[in-house]
Amino acid sequence: MGPLKDIKIFDLTRVLAGPHCTQILGDLGADIIKVERVENGDDTRKFAPPFMKDENGNDTDQSAYFSGTNRNKRSITLNLNSPEGQDIAKQLIAKSDILVENFKVGTLAKYGLDYNTLKDEFPSLIYCSITGFGQTGPYSKRPAYDALVQAMGGVMSLTGDANGEPMKVGVSIADLMAGMYGTVSILAALRHRDKTNEGQHLDISMLDAHVAWLANQGMNYLATNENPERLGNQHPNILPYQVMPSQDGYFVLSVGNDATFERFCKVASCENLLEDKIYSEAINRVKNRKVVTKTLNEITKQHPTEWWLERLEKSNIGCCAINTLDDVFKDPQVLAREMVIKMSGTAPDKLPYKLIANPMKMKEGSISYRYPPPKHGEHTDEILRDYLDLSKDEILTMKKSGII
After folding, report:
1. pLDDT one digit per residue (tens) for the chain, 404 residues
2. What is the DSSP letter of 131?
3. Is 318 left (phi over 0), alpha (psi -120 to 50) or beta?
4. 8-213+353-400 and 241-322 share one fold
5. 8-213+353-400 CATH pick, 3.30.980.40, 3.30.950.10, 1.10.8.420, 3.40.50.10540
6. What are the C-alpha distances in Å from 186 to residues 54, 193, 301?
7. Are 202 and 178 in contact (CB under 8 A)?
8. Where do the domains of the chain lie?
9. CA-based end-to-end distance of the chain
10. Inter-residue contact 308 to 251 (CB < 8 Å)
11. Long-range contacts from 52-55, C-beta under 8 angstroms, 24+ separation
């Protein structure tokens, strides 16, 4: 069942950063109640096409986007605008170890579900807020979106061709990294609670997370007070470490030190370059980026991609083809590591799910896949019955009143 099998999470998240966080915890065994709006549910249910397919290859009403971040969760619909819905929420929170939310700052206070309202009643509750800009600061109440944070956080100024427009990363990396930091903070808070029996508020900002993973590029700026230039597919501190043209396409070459560059020169039959410090020394290669790149590009254009990959791999030089997603999901290493999983949906349609697996491989307390991505409100009756001991009639009355 996983190392978090006894942990219960009240999940007030939607779209990507929050659901990514809670899915990781669900894969680790946590029991997750995903709260959705009565009418429409999580916004990503309509982030489509594409939709998941049924056994006959026809579109269902389950979006691929939603399905990618909501397995191992049970869905309950709840009207938090109503006092009755708020009361149900608090009853479920009372049985939970963790609450995760990604509402705009101040929104949950309207429902009495903010941390300051809950902390005294539930002192051991770990309350994780994932927002665009955090709970403090001049931007705290602004809405945030992944592309906006990529722009504000600087990565777009670093990404793209030097002569082209700034470019965002091709996946929602600001959301994903905020969710990842949220997961790490929750695990640390659980460890703290084990020792003290104290809950706490975790304040995760997408912008903070984005600045944190600027990594070497952020440090390059702090060391020089100079904005790094956009280098396209080149590395700011290593060369050659980039996309290289071949006779019939492109490949990636990763040379991390001078010894590896020497081996490259032997494979490429250009050992004469080693007589010039511009080429033989790593720092000089970076300082003379344009001339070194131009020279090496002319060399790699002399042979097809497969010629390079075969010989470079034999010489233990980092290289690879540039895969499409079709290539990725057929790659023998990806398949060997079981990075695609299959799950069956619930009756009556038993929708077949093909999902990206959790990458964590654990010797003890392994990852588990128990629930496929839920239908909207699929587990409402089950949760109210099992957690709060409500009867069928009580549940039916709540449905008629629009509470659930």
Report:
1. 689 999 999 999 999 999 999 999 999 999 999 999 999 999 999 999 999 988 888 888 899 999 999 999 999 999 999 999 999 999 999 999 999 999 999 999 999 999 999 999 999 999 999 999 999 999 999 989 999 999 999 999 999 998 899 999 999 999 999 999 999 999 999 999 999 999 999 999 999 999 999 999 999 999 999 999 998 898 999 999 999 999 999 999 999 999 999 999 999 999 999 999 999 999 999 999 999 999 999 999 999 999 999 999 999 999 999 999 999 999 999 999 999 999 987 766 677 889 999 999 998 878 999 999 999 999 999 999 999 999 999 999 999 999 99
2. E
3. beta
4. no
5. 3.40.50.10540
6. 36, 10, 50
7. no
8. 8-213+353-400, 241-322
9. 29
10. yes
11. 52/351, 52/353, 53/352, 54/349, 54/351, 54/352, 55/350, 55/352
Amino acid letter for position 133: F
- What's the rounded Cα separation, in Å, for the pair 179 and 189? 15
CA distances (Å), origin 287, targets 62, 180, 252, 281, 316? 52, 36, 21, 10, 26
Q: Which residues are catalytic?
A: 175
> Options 3.30.1540.10, 3.30.420.150, 3.40.30.10, 3.10.120.10; which CATH number does 241-322 get?
3.30.1540.10
Six token digits for residue 121: 């009643």
